[in-house]
Recover the amino acids of this structure.
DNA sequence: TTTTTAATTAACAAATTGTTTATTGTTAAT
DNA sequence: ATTAACAATAAACAATTTGTTAATTAAAAA
């Protein structure tokens, strides 16, 4: 093999190179649907899409015109795909410290009719406050939030149906198996606020039950009760606040209960 | 944004394109260290590396010569990175149906001195039988298996230290949170064989304890007892055999015990 | 003052786990 | 033939955690 390997490794010119390298971002947000006073919120997980213009900048018919797509752009040769995602999103939203995670590469030949273009896909979590603002201020009819329950029914550009489907699966997993939920919550949150975030992606009865969840939250090693502070955001009665502790959690499926 | 977006999306020529797109593979295997008769095995998780040649095919000094590296090669324009990984590995090993999973993209500017080369990284699980054979038959001094405990101490080519470190973390997670362990085991396996696989990546006392693990395995929904078949591979006494059932498992960290 | 409601505690049966001790069935040694 | 050794696993039981239902608390609203 070492010969074959050597050839492969060094004869760059023999191989066609890609026509483009893009970074695409599935922007997720959670909006509180009912936000009445003294009530725990009801939340829905949404993804932001842009509507592709009918005509391009030179007035010609656009590729995949009028379809919904995830935002993205070309990666520059002095940055990583991750940095490109971060740059584009922070330029766009004027928010820094956005949670972004790379989750997949999309490189199927023919996926983009314009050439051999490799997409590095990310998901991001953006506070709903920004996105509502953004939409109002811009009157941008070409931006919309879609519930993850509906989004896959749309007519989506390129292979974005695949990408979005994967993104939804990845964020669902991450919400349940990491502490990424903290990016949807204030620094200090009540048990019912965390519960509302998790309900957007699970029906687990142990999470749905108020009694079980409010008891369980006290014994989770990655969540700490905030001493001496309460809120009445979700209830007339003062409610305890919790905060996430930074740590890795790895619970084997072999030791869980079923 | 729709204007800026439009520009980015359509003006392909404005952007430099990558000089190469490669598919790299971290090949893992588990070797049974002590394989005495009637004893449960002791296993070690290993990664296969190749030693880069000192000179290239034209007799010139090689880049990153004599360093250890993960195998890989250029992706062709009619295949995906995943297919390239599969193709290379199956060509190489003559085994089909190898478990391969994409886990990361490595695209940091300067990571490869030969140009802007994007690496799509995968891990694969290959039976130890092949790799031992391969090594003996070829007398290939340029191929070696390294324990995951030692491999990061080596002098590794390019950014392969990063890639291998990530691969180890990903396979550790997958071994504990998915049923990927089945790729290291025969179709029907004993509790102590599964236990030995898991021990290569965890110290969890509930997995280490024979009594607990042999009791627990009976109640796991993704494992089924094989009726009417036993083995004496691991014990003088006939031992029950189990098999994995295909299913997704998603256990929230919020419902686990700590 | 009473009603309403979210948060929380209480209480208890049911299920699971940690742990220790015994049993089983075989091989290998005496 | 007997016994020692040993992996597998069953038995037993206390400790812990869960599911579930009921009760309590505190503040707004009627």
């Amino acid at each position: 093999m070492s010969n074959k390997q050597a050839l492969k490794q060094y004869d760059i010119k023999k191989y066609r190179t890609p026509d483009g390298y893009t970074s695409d971002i599935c922007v997720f947000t959670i909006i509180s649907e009912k936000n009445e006073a003294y009530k725990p919120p009801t939340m829905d997980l949404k993804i932001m899409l842009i509507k592709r213009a009918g005509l391009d900048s030179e007035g010609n018919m656009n590729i995949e015109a009028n379809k919904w797509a995830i935002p993205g752009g070309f990666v520059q040769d002095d940055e990583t795909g991750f940095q490109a995602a971060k740059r584009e999103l922070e330029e766009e939203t004027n928010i820094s410290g956005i949670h972004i995670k790379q989750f997949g590469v999309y490189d199927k030949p023919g996926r983009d009719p314009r050439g051999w273009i490799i997409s590095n896909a990310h998901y991001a979590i953006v506070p709903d406050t920004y996105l509502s603002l953004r939409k109002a201020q811009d009157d941008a009819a070409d931006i919309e939030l879609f519930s993850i329950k509906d989004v896959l029914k749309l007519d989506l550009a390129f292979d974005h149906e695949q990408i979005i489907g994967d993104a939804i699966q990845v964020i669902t997993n991450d919400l349940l198996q990491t502490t990424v939920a903290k990016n949807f919550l204030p620094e200090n949150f009540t048990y019912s606020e965390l519960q509302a975030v998790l309900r957007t992606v699970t029906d687990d009865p142990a999470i749905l039950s108020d009694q079980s969840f409010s008891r369980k939250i006290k014994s989770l090693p990655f969540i700490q009760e905030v001493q001496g502070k309460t809120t009445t955001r979700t209830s007339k009665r003062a409610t305890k606040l919790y905060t996430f502790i930074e740590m890795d959690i790895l619970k084997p499926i072999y030791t869980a209960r079923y």
Summary: Residues 1-10 of chain B have pLDDT under 50 and may be disordered. The beta strands of chain B are 20-34, 42-51, 68-69, 72-74, 99-106, 117-125, 143-147, 223-231, 239-244.
